[in-house]
Amino acid sequence: MESSRTILTKIFTDYYLGAAQAKKDGKPIAYVTAFTPVEILRAMDITCLYPESYAVVCSASGKAGDMIGSSGMGQFAGDLCSYSLISLGMDHAERLPYGGLPEPDFMVATNNQCGTTLLWFRLWSQRKNIPLFMIDYPTGSENTDQNEYVYRQYLALIEFVKKQTGRDLDQRVLAQQAANSRAACKLWSQVHVLNQAALQIDAAKLANALFPIVAARGTPAVCRYCETLIHEHSRENENAVIAAQPSFRLLWHGYPLWFLPKRYPSFNDDRFQIVLNDYTLWWDLDYPAADTLESLIRPYTSTYLNWLPQRRIDWTEQLVRDYAIDGVILHANRSCRRALAHVIPLRDHLLRQGIPSIILESDMANPDYYSPEKMNSQLESFKESILAA
């Protein structure tokens, strides 16, 4: 059996080199935002690329600073999303990872995770004269009117893509894509469950394992990858080869720090370990059993940052119980205003429930806003508060 590392490498290679080959072959390419219903686009034989995921690669490669400086946003750069700045700087940066992203034929943006992506993609569209389609997902719980509203936008998206490319929707491919996405998300949830009873996959590995479920969701390779992760770490459990278990289990709330080698700051104390980052579970999307266009309404309407605030709080509190969490670290990510807005209410709620919590300020991709000295000092105080509890 192939190792998870081998499968992950193949997914990365197929994604980036496959896109470059598609461009050479004259096949349509779309830039899409994080929670775009890519199953529809792939059922129309469109190659989908996620600039947000590429920004993560650039940050992890140490290229963020140069690309942000090349974004052309000048004095406004300090107030904007680092993902958008990295992407806007692609045209002027040198020696990009994987040679950069090929130019798109059109773009699709959604508001079900981030409002910034709509403005970012609109600016990109205007700068490059690239056609743009935007999908508006209502916030909150689903109802018949909301579902009809989203469904009509899906039909409009199909017509938009058909106009841009001349390609029709293949219902059989759509059904298979939806089935693959549903299976992959269920397996992704099971990967996390491995850490409920005992720490088997450290948080850094889970963060690095996120790419397939984000960028290749809907493909069979993601299911193979998750199945292999489960097999490898379940086997380690059976053979009692698990690393020493931490005394204090921590939850990291929000985006990792992609520019750090381990994605999270060091605790300098083996008793404290992050056993879960809830951001990686934001991608455990809920696909209904049906493999139709309508089945793509629920997963993309009910994304974490599209939930109402109370639902986010309730979900986090449930994770604390399910994963036996001793303390919660809330990343106040300056790049993500929608996530940042509920950090203080969430912290206050957790403290009222007697759950030790702390807010750490930084950025997901721009190392300029990371202070290791300040963060280490805060973490030391946080550990002392847990020990004293």
Task: Give the key terms.
alpha/beta; 389 residues; 50% helix; 11% strand; four-stranded parallel beta sheet; Rossmann fold; 8 strands
How would you characterize this protein structure?
- The protein has 389 residues and is of the alpha/beta class.
- It has a domain at 4-170: Rossmann fold (3-Layer(aba) Sandwich).
- It contains 17 helices and eight strands.
- It has helices at 4-24, 38-42, 51-60, 64-69, 82-88, 116-128, 144-165, 171-197, 203-208, 210-215, 220-238, 278-281, 297-301, 309-322, 337-340, 343-352, 372-388; strands at 29-32, 47-49, 106-110, 132-135, 248-253, 272-277, 327-333, 357-362.
- Strands 2-1-3-4 form a four-stranded parallel beta sheet, sandwiched between helices. The chain has a four-stranded parallel beta sheet with strand order 6-5-7-8, sandwiched between helices.
- Helix 3 packs across helix 5.
- The longest helix is centred in the middle third of the chain and has 27 residues, at 171-197.
- It is globular, with a radius of gyration of 21 Å.
